[in-house]
Write a structure and sequence with these properties.
It is a single chain. With 340 residues, the chain is an alpha+beta fold. The chain has two domains: 133 residues, Nuclear Transport Factor 2, Chain: A (Roll); 137 residues, Nuclear Transport Factor 2, Chain: A. It is 28% helix and 34% strand. The protein is built from nine helices and twelve strands. The strands form two sheets. A six-stranded mixed sheet has the order 2-1-6-5-4-3. Strand 9 and strand 10 form a beta hairpin. Helix 5 crosses helix 9. The longest helix is centred in the first third of the chain and has 15 residues. The chain is globular, with a radius of gyration of 19 Å. The termini are far apart.
């Protein structure tokens, strides 16, 4: 922690000045804090004391699966996850951040998770199955404490690698849902300590405009704004390349919810050499499952989709994209409407 090698000529982001003010001095900047805390908790197995040391007592965590409050719930979830995947390794790929020490900072933390299924938990599959999936978490921290989290896990990738589907897994676990807190939807949300919307960077604005046009049905923007050789990472552990792969994912999602309201809740743009310009968006679709798309026959269910997307830009447009949503949480809402 605090001594990661940086490329020659690299520098800390300028926004907010000295980013470690109020944080443990072993962290050289805010991304180092986010990556370092994750490493101490997961690789260092600090599931109890370390997690409590870096979390506000009233921490709020939202995910498509539901909402939890307080460090006790966070520790219980972490221990259950570790028991299910005992050799779980969390490799931090990037932290796209904004803010300042005075108001706190939010980092959108993209992680590649490598694990073997150890049995137990909500899954019923052969033990030892190797897994590879991503999570993205928007993490808000101030004065060395995390107090607000929005986390999206690619549960669709997990279920498929364990030999089932998001639909079948959701159906099997529907009865275990707590309707007061699961799955997440605006009606059960609360106002937390972080009420910011990100920053005004051109890169965040460009990515937001791109997704808004796609959600309006203007698919021509993909060929206009994406690099022809773009690499794309989508739910279900899907890796795609080129314009067709982007169109397939976004059209399949939008076609399932053709009248749903699309909203961008948070956007960050960051130009931080030697990295390429990047952007992070947290967004949602809220409305009726009213069309044929990625989620089967229209059910009429009212569905809330929480999504987080990252992008990198190059000389020929958007060159890499990572977009996550939780397919199992969407199926939970559809199946609940259908009566299971």
């Amino acid at each position: 922690m605090g001594h990661r090698v940086r490329a020659p000529g690299s520098r800390q982001p300028e926004e907010g000045g000295k980013t470690v003010q109020g944080f443990d001095p072993k962290f050289r900047d805010f991304p180092d804090y986010v990556l370092g805390v994750s490493e101490e908790i997961w690789e260092g197995r600090g599931l109890g004391a370390k997690l409590r040391a870096y979390s506000h007592g009233d921490i709020i965590q939202r995910s498509p699966a539901g909402i939890t409050f307080g460090t006790g719930a966070l520790v219980a979830e972490a221990m259950a996850l570790q028991a299910t995947f005992p050799d779980r390794r969390v490799l931090g790929e990037d932290v796209i951040w904004s803010g300042s020490p005075a108001v706190g900072m939010l980092g959108s933390h993209r992680q590649l998770v490598l694990a073997a299924y150890g049995g137990g938990g909500p899954f019923d599959a052969p033990t030892g199955t190797a897994l590879r999936y991503r999570e993205i978490a928007d993490v808000y921290a101030k004065a060395n404490l995390v107090s607000d989290v929005w986390r999206v896990c690619d549960t669709g990738a997990i279920t498929r690698q364990l030999g089932t589907t998001p639909h079948d897994w959701a159906r099997a676990n529907l009865a275990d849902q707590d309707p007061e807190t699961q799955p997440f939807r605006p009606a059960i949300d609360v106002i937390g300590p972080y009420t910011g919307r990100g920053n005004s960077s051109q890169w965040g604005a460009a990515f937001a405009d791109l997704l808004e046009r796609v959600m309006q049905g203007d698919l021509s923007v993909i060929a206009e704004q994406y690099d022809r050789a773009c690499q794309l990472e989508y739910p279900g552990g899907v890796t795609g390349h080129g314009w067709q792969a982007a169109e397939t994912f976004w059209l399949g999602l939008r076609a399932s919810f053709p009248t749903a309201s699309f909203a961008i809740h948070h956007q960050i743009g960051l130009s931080d050499p030697p990295m390429p310009p990047r952007a992070a968006l947290r967004w949602s679709l809220s409305g009726r499952h009213g069309g044929w798309g990625s989620f089967g026959a229209p059910s009429g269910a009212e569905v809330h989709v929480m999504g987080i997307s990252h992008a990198e830009f190059g000389p020929w447009g958007l060159r890499r994209e990572w977009s996550l949503l939780d397919e199992t949480a969407i199926w939970m809402q559809i199946l609940n409407h259908r009566g299971g």
